[in-house]
Amino acid sequence: MRVVFLGAPGVGKGTQAERISAQYRVAKISTGDLLREAVRMKTPLGIEAKSYMDQGKLVPDAVVIGLVRAKLADPSCAAGFVLDGFPRTVPQAEELGTALASKAMALDGVVNFQVPREAVVQRLSGRRSCPKCQATFHVNFAKPKVDGICDRCGESLVQRSDDEREAIETRLKVYDEQTAPLVRYYDERQLLSSLDASGTVDVVFQHLSQVLAPYQMR
Ligand code: AMP
Predict the structure, then answer these.
(1) Of 70, 108, 110, 182, which residue has the fewest beta carbons closer than 10 angstroms?
(2) Residue nearest to atom 6 of ligand 1 (CA)
(3) 176 φ, ψ to 5°?
């Protein structure tokens, strides 16, 4: 299974990628997680990426493409992968195609997660994240067992700086301008499936599993 999860920030791509990765034993490649880890470790790449991320802007293509190329070469991706948050621009999509072709691989499909804009803003502004294990919660919809503490690893939860209102607005604008054109890009290549991602995590997971079912047979 080699798939891309496409959609605006806050549509639940990361949550579903996590579940699909566990269920079907394929790698989850989240460029947001990889970048946040680089920021946390204060690597040169992380230092370069941080200012873009804090503002809700895209990190330059060359930086992200390098990260994804390295990850795709990893043996953990041999059985398949779910790409979460990549590609986000047409040049990234072109690079992904080239990188896969050089390994005699191709994408099986691209799932376009669709959620009404008001719901996306609600999901993002109430999101709380674990800086250590990257698990996410929500102040209303997915509360941790102990207020402010990660269920999984016990770390204190934080609001990502790019989940603050001003950055959310920028991220949605950046999505509309730079990422939304990928819907057409992949539709023209007959790779696109649409998914109503406005339900609960379990309901969306069920629908998503149906969408992905044909790819498991290959
Ligand atoms: P995410 O967790 O996917 O919402 O990503 C968080 C932030 O990381 C984004 O707002 C961007 O600043 C950066 N980022 C993640 N993926 C990409 C990408 N494919 N291209 C450029 N920037 C990215």
Answers:
(1) 70
(2) 32
(3) -60, -40
Any idea what the CATH number is for the domain that residue 60 is in?
A: 3.40.50.300
Probe target for ligand 1 pocket from 48, 53, 115, 128, with the most ligand atoms within 8 Å of CB: 53
Longest dimension (CA), the chain: 48
Q: How many domains does the chain have?
A: 1
Determine the atom of ligand 1 nearest the C-alpha atom of 33: 2
Task: Provide the CB-side half-sphere exposure for 38 (13 A, CA).
Answer: 21
Domain extent at residue 6:
2-114+178-217
Instruction: Check if 32 has its Cβ closer than 6 Å to any atom of ligand 1.
Output: yes
Structural domain contains residue 191: yes
Does residue 217 register a pLDDT over 70?
no
CA 99 to CA 73: how far, in whole Å?
10
Residue 163 Cβ inside 6 Å of ligand 1? The answer reads: no
In a domain, 85, yes or no: yes
Residue 68 belongs to a domain? yes
**CA–CA gap between residue 10 and residue 197 (Å, rounded):** 10
Confirm whether 127 is domain-assigned.
no
pLDDT tens digits along 107-139: 999 999 999 999 999 999 999 999 888 888 999
